[in-house]
Specification:
4 copies of one chain form a homotetramer.
Chain A: E1 2-7, H1 11-22, E2 26-32, H2 38-46, E3 49-51, H3 54-59, E4 65-68, H4 75-84, E5 88-91, H5 99-109, E6 117-118, H6 126-136, E7 143-151, H7 158-162, H8 167-170, H9 172-183, E8 186-194, H10 198-202, E9 208-215, E10 220-226, E11 234-241, E12 244-248, E13 256-260, H11 274-277, H12 279-295, H13 303-322, E14 326-327
Parallel strand pairs in A: 1-2, 1-4, 2-3, 4-5, 5-6, 7-10
Antiparallel strand pairs in A: 7-11, 8-9, 8-14, 9-10, 11-12
Pfam family, one (chains A, B, C, D): GFO_IDH_MocA_C3
Domain Gfo/Idh/MocA-like oxidoreductase N-terminal (chains A, B, C, D): 2-120
Keywords (chains A, B, C, D): NAD, Oxidoreductase
């Protein structure tokens, strides 16, 4: 039984706390959040202890592992503090918005960097994981082209956008990791940004984009992003190989279809957002973390994967702004 | 080149005339219809001759074969007259509403009865024909259960219903033939009728029904009929065997799907009715007729098939009225 | 927090124990099973107490409600004993195979019969429940025809079949309840049985069947059953109304589709059987029970519903054996 | 009745000849092809006259309009000769591989350039045309992102590739026209080429590519091309707007699906190539041409559209080779 502290009682911390509480191999012992009464409320819900002092949870004896769901600028500090306290670590993506800080973090972690899990939850979605496994097993031959459609249901507030690091570091970073999950190393990045909503443009960001990534293998991944989608959270994946193709469709709450006089076989809108869409992924992600901790084995995705995705995001940002294609070293 | 006369310039005669005119192996030479100027109009459209005297067309020298699309009560007369004139024959379904008249017709045709084609057009639908062929080739093992969903877009007028012979002889007869096409001889019939529209009930008929047919093989076909369907002409087929299943979906004009805020992947309504839905079937039906005529070989479905479907319709009528299951001899 | 004892540590008892253990509003306190060490093992897994004496659990102070998953012949005894002990009751279907015993049970329960839940789990499947709710809200007009496809992945052993009460009381009873869930009272039953597997025929049972049920409203439900299906547990529902249609498709583990040179858009086989297919249904079923217990309100489906489904099963058994249509009083 | 000469008796000329012969408003009078006996054979099939001298057909009195299906390098000559002879013109794409020649052709045509139809047949595919019409009518709000998947079933021979003008001028040009059909003027082009097949690389061409086109409106179209696809001719379109999405799926010969023990709902491979996939498009394209000729109205797509698509192809070629984004003037 792994005793776990969750750092951050916000939206994602709440998801992790529930997953830990429900998991047969984990016990939720602490919730830490310096702001307001979020930690206390969340802890009460699950019969855990709470604190406003993150350090208290990081050093508690009944904590074996820490799940970091704090604001992005605090991730590196919390990772390093948890590591110093000898705890196992899972941290939400991105590691940081500044690749120099990520590099410093990796340097300080040393050998243990490949034990610090980064929460690219989509790798654990049963459908995407199935596609990756079947493709890796050779079922569709040599991989040639990957298409990732990734649209959020609605744009975040402009205030969020302004400090998000931009669409590529904030939103597309998940898709960059998915491309790496499927195709391995990326060597070239090319991004076209769109300004659809003037408020987001005013906040200095794109709200839609198309990115092409060329892998070392010669395969190309195309990522199509939009900050809004009328039908919900549009999350699709298509992997084309030399002998076949695997694709994953959008999810709805049920498989019910309606037919009437005006249209037929109509399904419900997609599940609204990541909490609903990736419920199963958060559970299997946690299981993967628990297993790796139990055996003290390297874990994937780890801080190195977090760094690689951020490097692509930096390149995409540059490409979209300048129109230049960027080669990654 | 086969010279063809079409008897009857109504809705179905118009379909056949167009198919003959477009077919590379046939020439439309005559249209005969005793009522009004339908024959003249239809003939003008295709550059054929027209007559109000059916006999004139039946005996014309430039007529090798006759397609009979006259009202049902005239079918037998026209079949026998055309046979007497030495012409090849395709006749719309049903042969007649009275099985005694069908038997007399068969007796008079003698050896040639298996050369007189009956227009069960659905056997020639590319999808249904593919299913029959793949099932017959053993692709899904022993056939166990067939489900035929067959719903018209809207009920005909009560006046039509009153002289139609009833839903089983008029509408379900196509499905009875489809069951025989897939399963061969039927030995037991069980029908449940429904009265949904009081006007059709007043006309003495059911307007919906569920019929189960037991084949000599032990397989069971279920037919679900309705005189109306909000989404159009609902024509589906599902054949379950011991090792697999084959199914055919409804057709729309295009494969376009719409997704919006309220629903997703919505298709158009089904094609409205048989002229649109079975366009391809009428063409391949004609080709099958032409080929059989050219080689003077027996043809399927023929008058015997027309009789067999009518016998099932009679049994279903009895079953639905009395609640008794009917064994066919 | 509702303290619950589970009676029976077999396959279905295991499902209920896990659901109770995971439910935020229930506590699993006892597992009782007189045979072997099943109760001890299952209790250990969930930190509950166990006993070989069912009575001990039925009378324990830390038991508010009992979930009965014992063999069918014991259901009535356990229901009555639990009721005598003042416990709330959920019992697996069927109540009993003998309608006289069910009537006696109802008589003895008196006013409380509508508080004893019967485990027709499919009513709680999110897809089927959505269809029922939307249909009941009038979204598709007057209900006209219901089609229930229900095929098991593989037949049970002949030994099970021999004491199962027959396909209609054992398997179709779920579909009878689904028809009642959607259409209300059934007034006429008509069943056609099939003998596909000689071993099951030797055991005195049908292994496939088509049943048509006429509702008091005039709507007809068609149930197509088969004890085996090559593609898994085939569970589909289609409800046609005067203005529209609602349908629920089969479930797979993921929504991944494969396309290759020989075929395209191929999905995985269906989820294999009821434990996988109806996982969500068992959870929502338990929630419905908990809510009804908390408010001491009547619950649906209850023992009266169990009796009604059994009466249809008896009628179907008679109809399939004799070929007679059966009117329910 | 429009009298039509078809220039070129190759694969595409054969398609046009058949469409003309079957069309109720056209008469196929001449086939001209200087090489071998292709013209004679094709003419015999349709009861038309044939000649080895293209000029003879261009100047024949019983020719009102000319459909040019000759090799690409001859297109401009044939367009100008037909125009000089006072004939109406439909010409296969591309106008030419050299934009200077296209400009010269347009200059010489003068006012009549917008009456010379270019055979971008996909605009006339019923599904794509429906999407364009519904999108143009505002059904999905402001257009934001278009995704065009366009994969051929198998690469042409390296000899063809070598003189094809490259993938962008030969294959993608259809997709460039589709993007313009949906989004109007394109202002920026960005192309990433792939070398999958060494033989095609040796021939100096890419055999797969991803192109992003930015429209003047700010919308972005993504084109994903591959010279081969295991499942057939992969032709999909997805248009996302601010309030909804429209998509067109791949076509098969029938809508039959197979389910068995290993996979379920498997469809056939896609229709193999353009002749099968775009049969309906060739017919409606011809109708559009006939209507425009009858009313002497401008037609779309015309030589200006052919030039615009070629300009995008030139830009894509440059972009893929240099890695530079290209702005169109």
């Amino acid at each position: 039984m792994l005793n776990i502290a969750v750092i951050g009682a916000g939206r994602i911390g709440t998801v992790h706390a529930a997953a830990v509480a429900a998991h047969p191999g984990t016990r939720l012992t602490w919730i830490a959040d310096p702001f307001g009464d979020g930690a206390a409320r969340l802890a009460a819900e699950h019969g855990a202890k709470s604190t406003l002092a993150v350090d208290e949870a990081l050093h508690a004896e009944d904590v074996d592992a820490v799940i970091i769901g704090s604001p992005t600028p605090l991730h590196v500090d919390h990772i390093l503090a948890a590591a110093a306290a000898g705890k196992k670590i899972m941290c939400e993506k991105p590691v940081d918005l500044d690749i120099a800080r990520v590099d410093a973090c990796i340097a300080q972690l040393g050998d243990r960097a490949d034990r610090v899990m980064i929460g690219f939850n989509r790798r654990f979605d049963p459908g995407f994981a199935e596609i990756q496994a079947r493709a890796a097993a050779g079922e569709i031959g040599d991989l040639e082209q990957v298409t990732i459609i990734s649209r959020d249901p609605a744009a975040p507030p402009a205030s969020y956008v302004a400090q998000s690091g931009g669409i590529f570091r904030d939103m597309t970073i998940h898709d960059f990791d998915m491309a790496r999950f499927l195709l391995g190393d990326i060597v070239e990045v090319n991004a076209v940004g769109q300004h659809l909503d003037p408020q987001i443009e005013a906040a200095g960001d794109f709200d839609a984009a198309v990115v092409t990534l060329t892998a070392a293998s010669g395969a190309v991944a195309t990522i199509i992003n939009n900050r809004h989608c009328p039908s919900g959270y549009d999350q699709r994946l298509e992997v084309c190989g030399s002998t076949g193709m695997l694709e994953a469709a959008n999810h709805r709450a049920t498989l019910v279809r309606y037919s009437g006089a005006e249209y037929t076989e109509a399904a419900a809108p997609y599940l609204n957002f990541f909490l609903e869409r990736y419920t199963a992924a958060y559970t299997t992600e946690l299981s993967a973390f628990v297993t790796a901790v139990e055996h003290d084995t390297p874990i994937t995705p780890n801080v190195h994967d977090g760094r690689a995705a951020l490097a692509i995001a930096d390149a995409a940002t540059h490409s979209a702004r300048t129109g230049e294609r960027v080669r990654l070293s």
